[in-house]
Amino acid sequence: MAENTTTGKNGGILRNPLAAREKSGRRYAGVREWQAELSISRLFRTSIRLQTAFDRCFSKFGMTAQEAAVLVHCADERETSAGRLAKAMGRDKGKITRFVDRLEDGGFITRRSDPQDHRLLIIKATNRGRRVVPQLKIRFEEVRSQFFEGVQNVDIDKLETVLSQLHANAERLCEEKAHKDTQA
After folding, report:
1. Cα–Cα dist 80/90, whole Å
2. Which option is the CATH number for 62-148: 3.90.1150.10, 1.10.10.10, 1.10.10.60, 1.20.1530.20?
3. Least confident of 2-16, 85-99, 102-116
4. Which of 2-6, 136-140, 177-181 tops mean pLDDT?
5. pLDDT-above-90 percentage for the chain
6. DSSP character string of 132-146
7. Are 14 and 7 in contact (CB under 8 A)?
């Protein structure tokens, strides 16, 4: 095998990142840096593929996976607000509002002003929305089951630990960037 290649896990030939400069001029400090870059790339690609798989499953209901998740939350909570949905789902309120707009247009949810605080909008699943929620839950479970097929529970536990740490690191990076942006 050539000096600047190595065999990957799937038997494919990978370019040795330490042997020579790549076309971009990128030089790796070590194997860990190269593996970390590959892991980030794989994490992004996996996330995109998983989102696509979920979205395809829910397209027959006329919604995306994120919209389906919002509808399930609304039905489970009986009534909620965009702020509470955003917090529960780890999304920003503006994004949740766009999901709610599309679900309302589809007749799956309604919004009305809170009688005690007219600034607050109460979001509730409609009869149509509540009827479809059991099917949505089944589809979520089917995709989850297929996604983790062949992965042992102990590995899922390890993955959760690693992803939790990576999420905390990403949160810290976002906060640092926001702080730097406000300082500039």
Report:
1. 15
2. 1.10.10.10
3. 2-16
4. 136-140
5. 40
6. HHHHHHHHHHHHHHH
7. yes
